[in-house]
Amino acid sequence: MKTLTQEIFNELFIRYPQLVVCKNDIEKAYNLLYSTYEKKGKVLCCGNGGSASDSEHIVGELLKSFKMKRSVDQSFALNLALYEGGKELVEELEGALPAISLVSQTSIISAFANDRAWETTFAQQVYGLGKKDDCLISLSTSGNSKNCVYATMVAKAKFMNTIAFTGAKDSKLKDICDVTIAVPETETFKVQELHLPVYHCLCAMLESEFFA
To answer: What share of the chain is helix, strand, coil (3-state, %, to 5)?
Structure first.
């Protein structure tokens, strides 16, 4: 872990000392995500309600610059420069870590929910989009959201890495995920308030490693 990455990690627990109980799991989650990107994989995210917004938020931080300037891959820049206006376009693009929010896919969600069942819409997307060494992040304050549990089951069957963000209570996601970050709250909005600094930290750490 680079010095800057370690500093970002340490700062989280200075600003949010209550998260110290999750320190080991947050580090494990970072290592899984780092491995995913090192192996050229991608991250899929899912959740419901406020956690759906968090899913979108995570993807937004991964697909563009977050805390620092990210340059695009140089070989890509050279290829793009072969086209008229390509050099100018390169200057407008930023380095990205591949990520997809499953909650955004309106057409497949509505079609599959209508034809099959709402609880399996995320699972279907994971089946279609996921591959070995990708990572699924499921956000569920209870840890028992059926659509997130089913998505995780499919991810495990495809040999993907799996991370859950939950509250303090034991849960189905905790039973099956590789890593569960169970923040020390049980009330929904309080759980979500602590999920945000954790995933901000993870995104900043990944950015530091791959783009610093």
So the answer is: 60, 10, 30
* Predicted TM-score of the model (pTM): 0.96
pLDDT at 151: 98
Count the helices and strands in the chain (H runs, E runs): 10, 5
Provide mean pLDDT across the span 197-207. Answer: 98
Placement of tokens 């569960």 in the chain:
180
pLDDT in tens, 108-151: 999 999 999 999 999 999 999 999 999 999 999 999 999 999 99
For residue 131, count other CB atoms closer than 10 A to its CB. 10
CA 43 – CA 10 distance, rounded (Å) = 24
How far apart CA 3 and CA 21 sit, in angstroms, is: 23
- Taking the C-alpha atoms of residue 33 and residue 202, their distance in angstroms, rounded to an integer, is 8
- Ramachandran area for residue 133 (φ above 0: left; ψ -120 to 50: alpha; else beta): left
Nearest to 120 by CA among 140, 139, 146: 146
